[in-house]
TrEMBL record:
It is found in: Secreted. GO terms for cellular component: extracellular region; plant-type cell wall. Residues 28-330 form the Plant heme peroxidase family profile domain. It catalyses: 2 a phenolic donor + H2O2 = 2 a phenolic radical donor + 2 H2O. It comes from the Eukaryota. The gene is 11415919. Heme b binds at H196. PROSITE patterns: PEROXIDASE_1 (PS00435), PEROXIDASE_4 (PS50873). GO terms for molecular function: heme binding; lactoperoxidase activity; metal ion binding; peroxidase activity. The keyword Glycoprotein applies. This is Peroxidase. Its main location: secreted. Transmembrane segments: none annotated. Its cofactor is Ca(2+); heme b.
Length: 355
């Protein structure tokens, strides 16, 4: 744990180029919230995630995506982790999530170990947020002291998930609107999109770009022609659409600035990604160029935006609860054996939403 704290401390001591680094927009959140009540929290989460990442290098990207999909729906409250019950309609079955979310079982693994070490202390919302920060470190990205003190929601909102989560074919205007609705600005949009520097997407979500963009019968003109042919080889027109393609063809499992270099070279995998650079006159172009020119600048702003996103509409104080099991509210989870409940997820799922 000491070595991990050194890494995090060193990486978080930076000056953000596009704005000050807010450790928390909510005064009740504190990186040392569990310093006395659960001092082993960070080391427990780190050990679980490090072990999983060794056998599944895609998992860190999936954890960060899971965090994003949680925060964009009624705030960072672990609502995305809730399974269907008689009273809860799970967000996991929303269109951007169905058969695509990964990492729920990993969060459950961490929760199980944390409950043994410090029962009824640490929320699932905090575990997911912390796991996202650790996932960045494990893949070569920056680390930061994650503000903690969130509590878990008592419900989910599938309709809001369908409404709020941006899609892979969104225009730049629609992306900006989706982020603005969460209190996130254009710099946040570009910085958080950088999470597409690792992970994979199914061919299903790019087939139109490759063969029939906007019903023209032609490919998306913003795609590099060599890259287009590579993608067509991986994603045949009459295929099932289930083949998986790396977001970054050069360093697919590393969090780095290559995403932005790819956009400059017309090699953004999703339409919504390439929109950041190829929309004529867009204010996002200069931000992409800045991040492409300096990995340090990207990392600084990624930290800033991840903390900002992690503070969206958090529950603190006496709001919500501290779930005993992440997939069920306490009234239900008290009837279950924590050690044998498995999350309902598709381990072969891949990224669907824009981020």
């Amino acid at each position: 744990m000491n070595s991990f704290r050194v890494i995090v401390t060193a990486l978080c001591c930076v000056v953000v180029v596009f704005g000050g680094l807010p450790f928390s927009s909510n005064a009740q959140l504190d990186p040392y919230f569990y310093g006395k009540t659960c001092p082993k929290l960070h080391s427990i989460a780190f050990k679980v995630l490090r072990k999983v990442a060794k056998t599944d290098p895609r998992m860190p990207a999936s954890i960060i995506r899971l965090h994003f999909h949680d925060c964009f729906v009624q705030g960072c409250d672990a609502s995305v982790l809730l399974n269907n019950t008689a009273t809860i309609v799970s967000e996991q079955d929303a269109f951007p999530n169905i058969n695509s979310l990964r990492g729920l079982d990993v969060i459950n693994q961490i929760k199980t170990k944390v409950e043994k070490a410090c029962p009824n202390r640490v929320s699932c919302a905090d575990i997911l947020t912390l796991a996202s920060g650790i996932s960045s470190v494990l893949t070569g990205g920056p680390g930061w002291e994650v503000p903690l003190g969130r509590r878990d929601s008592l419900t989910a909102n599938q309709s809001l998930a369908n409404q709020n989560l941006p899609g892979p074919n969104f225009s730049l205007d629609r992306l900006k609107s989706a982020f603005a609705a969460q209190g996130l600005n254009t710099v946040d949009l570009v910085a958080l999109s950088g999470a597409h520097t690792f992970g994979r997407a199914r061919c299903l979500f790019i087939l139109d770009r490759l063969y029939n963009f906007n019903n023209t019968g032609k490919p998306d003109p913003t795609l590099d022609t060599t890259y287009l042919q590579q993608l067509r080889n991986q994603c045949p027109q009459n295929g099932t659409g289930n083949n998986r393609v790396n977001f970054d063809p050069t360093t697919p499992d590393t969090l780095d600035k290559n995403f932005y270099n790819n956009l400059q070279g017309k090699k953004g995998l999703l339409q919504s990604d390439q929109e950041l650079f190829s929309t004529p006159g867009a204010d996002t172009i200069s931000i992409v160029n800045s991040f492409a020119n300096s990995q340090n600048v990207f990392f600084q702003n990624f930290i800033n935006s991840m903390i900002k996103m992690g503070n969206i509409d958090v529950l603190t104080g006496k709001k919500g609860e501290i779930r005993k099991q992440c997939n069920f509210i306490n009234k239900k989870s008290s009837e279950l054996d924590l050690g044998i409940v498995a999350s309902a997820e598709s381990m072969e799922g891949d990224m669907v939403s824009s981020i």
